[in-house]
Design a protein that fits this description.
The protein has 236 residues and is an alpha/beta fold. The protein is built from nine helices and six strands; from the N terminus they run αβααβααβαβαβαβα. It has a six-stranded parallel β-sheet with strand order 3-2-1-4-5-6, sandwiched between helices. Helix 1 packs parallel to helix 8 and helix 3 packs parallel to helix 9. It is globular, with a radius of gyration of 17 Å.
């Protein structure tokens, strides 16, 4: 697990801006979605992964805990999967130019729909009522990547708990774009995984300062359970 380290100076700036450490701790559980990004063999399984982040294996228990808590408090769990398509060779040619022919071949093989790499990590607790959405860019929300924003809005969901891999690439890209599309967005500090602690913590700090909230698994579950009790009390 990453050694999460958010400097006190960053926390102080957040409090100065928002008046409290956690700007989204008043989330409404039934309007909350757990968004799990790219927890696929293509990023996690040695010998199959084209871009391995082995730390992602260690966050699986926290993701499963969050998924159970979100379902139990009437929220929604969404599993995001990256899928390769030939169309992106032209529409995202900048990426393939950067990674070269060998990188392109590895990515295409690992993320082809129906391949071992495209599958979700087997230890994830995926339930029949959960949603599975495919994307074709780092961000699930950027134009043309997926229909995630419409799916969430159709269900009345306005708050997102973002988890998955890699923290500073697909997870942060998805979380930033979510906020700019007007979703209240929270990155889960021990529910995301990067290649290094430095990458992970830099990403969390950047997001926390401007784009949304950062919470641990334990804290996020506490908010869900506390707020669902508030909702029940208000209804009585």
């Amino acid at each position: 697990m990453h050694e999460v380290s958010i400097p006190q100076s960053v926390i102080d700036r957040v409090v100065a801006r928002h008046g409290r450490e956690h700007v989204h701790d008043n989330l409404v559980p039934s309007r909350t979605a757990l968004v799990v990004v790219d927890m696929q063999n293509a990023f996690m399984l040695p010998g199959v992964a084209h871009s391995p982040c082995l730390m992602a294996q260690k966050i699986v228990p926290n993701i499963n805990r969050l998924a159970n808590a979100v379902r139990a408090t009437a929220g929604t769990v969404v599993w995001i999967k990256t899928a390769y398509s030939k169309e992106t060779l032209e529409s995202w040619s900048t990426l393939y130019g950067m990674i070269g022919a060998k990188g392109t071949e590895k990515r295409a093989r690992a993320l082809a729909v129906g391949s071992k790499g495209h599958e979700l990590w087997p230890d994830l607790d995926v339930q029949p009522q959960d949603l599975i959405v495919e994307k074709n860019r780092y961000s699930a929300f950027i134009q043309g990547s997926s229909d995630l924003a419409g799916i969430l809005r159709q269900r009345g969901l306005d708050t997102l708990l973002v988890t998955g891999t890699v923290t500073n690439v697909c997870c942060e890209s998805t979380a930033r774009d979510a906020m700019m599309l007007n979703f209240k967005t929270i990155m889960v500090s021990d529910g995301n995984a990067a290649v290094t602690d430095e990458d992970h913590n830099a990403s969390l700090c950047n997001f926390y300062l401007t784009f949304g909230d950062v919470m641990s698994t334990e804290f996020a579950i506490g908010c869900l359970e506390r707020n669902v009790q508030k909702g029940l009390a208000a209804a009585e």
